[in-house]
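Our consortium's second objective concerns turning raw sequence data into structural hypotheses that experimental partners can test. To show how far this objective has progressed, the report includes one record in full. It was chosen at random from the queue rather than selected for favorable results. The single chain below, 120 residues long, was entered without modification.
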Amino acid sequence: MIEVKTIDKPDERRDFPRGHMNALHLTGLDFAVGVFEPGWRWSESVGPLAGTESCEVHHNGFVVQGRMRIRMNDGAETEVGAGDVFVCPAGHDAWVVGSEQVVVYDFAGGMARDYAKSAG
């Protein structure tokens, strides 16, 4: 069976301060499009919803637009930008760099299933 969905008509949308996430759920794939506005930072915008001190979602991502800085709990840091494909394990903070909106496609599944859902 072939399944096709468009990111223009997501199965669900989750809003959080300075951004939102659209999720598409297909058999064998949960896909997310994260949109982060300038000033967004995980620990301030999503952390209170998640109820954790760092993002505990693993990401397999592709940056469509903008730049984002990622800091792992062990202090390691990197920056990703448009055209970059990245793998980021659970246990990190991240924030938008500069004044351009960041758009990330996430293929890991955890983002589409669990990201920005209330801990309660």
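The partners drew two points from this record. The mean pLDDT is 92. The longest strand covers residues 19-26. Both points have been shared with the crystallography group to help prioritize constructs.
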